[in-house]
Amino acid sequence: MKLPSPQLSRTYPAAFSLIELLSVIGVLSILLALAAPALMPSAPSRKAAAHELAAAMDRARAEAIALQRDLYIAFPDETHPGTRRPFRTMAFFLATEPSGEPIIDQPVRQIRSWFELPEGLVFLPASVLASATQSLPPTVIDLPQRRDFIVRDGQGNALEITAPFICMSPSGRILHPPFHQAEALHLTLGGGHYDPASQELVPTTGSSATVAGETLRFSPTTGSVQILTD
């Protein structure tokens, strides 16, 4: 009697199942998402900075109305001491007496710490915007009339600066600049830092200079601020 020959058993190498492969891919995706911010240079958010700036301007307007005093907002330019603060800061000043003296001579005192844009953002002057757009409404930075202010640095030392400025009345409207200059007055934020020597935006480390940015416009009659790029 012929016995059936035993079948040879075959062994196969172990393999991953589809579920295991999908699990590994999912874990790797999560790890890459967590590591990406550390691997790439982070750029400051112009939109977030624009909203903070608008809120600071609205607070200044409310303060002028509440205290019934003229309120000044100075924007230090390339004449400001130091290398990083030009075109990046605002300082707030309150008239020490009710309105009466000319705006350029009215005694004022600084009432608040500096408002400073995040590192890597600047207020753009018209000399930079001219290369990016054909229409050039006036910017706060380019206002021709300036006045002297006494400011405090980080160590509490008094410094005198000459800077372009906005003046808000006790009713909240803009007293300076005059209406024909304030009708389209705006501020534009861009990436990088401004080099006064070359009048160009210099890219910050790991990013590129961005001329087109967030733009805020002031209403000369109400003093309110509108973010145009929202």
Can you describe what's shown?
This protein has 230 residues and is of the alpha+beta class. It contains four helices and 13 strands. Strands 1, 2, 3, 4, 6, 7 and 8 form a seven-stranded antiparallel sheet that branches. Strand 7 and strand 8 form a beta hairpin. The longest helix is centred in the first third of the chain and has 22 residues. The protein is elongated, with a radius of gyration of 29 Å. About 3% of the residues have low confidence.
Q: Notable features of this structure?
A:
230 residues, alpha+beta, seven-stranded antiparallel sheet, four-stranded antiparallel sheet, 4 helices, 23% helix
How far from one another are the termini?
93 Å
Summed up, the helix count is 4
Helix and strand element order: HHEEEEEHEEEHEEEEE
Count of extended strands: 13
Radius of gyration, in Å, reads 29 Å
Broad structural category: alpha+beta
Beta-strand content bin: 25-35%
Mean pLDDT: 76
> Which term fits the overall shape?
elongated
Low-confidence parts: 37-42
Give a short account of the largest sheet.
7 strands, antiparallel
Helicity, as a percent range = 10-25%
Which helices and strands appear, and what pairs or packs with what?
Layout: H1 18-39, H2 46-67, E1 71-74, E2 89-95, E3 108-110, E4 115-116, E5 121-123, H3 126-129, E6 146-152, E7 158-168, E8 174-176, H4 179-182, E9 186-191, E10 193-195, E11 200-202, E12 215-218, E13 225-227
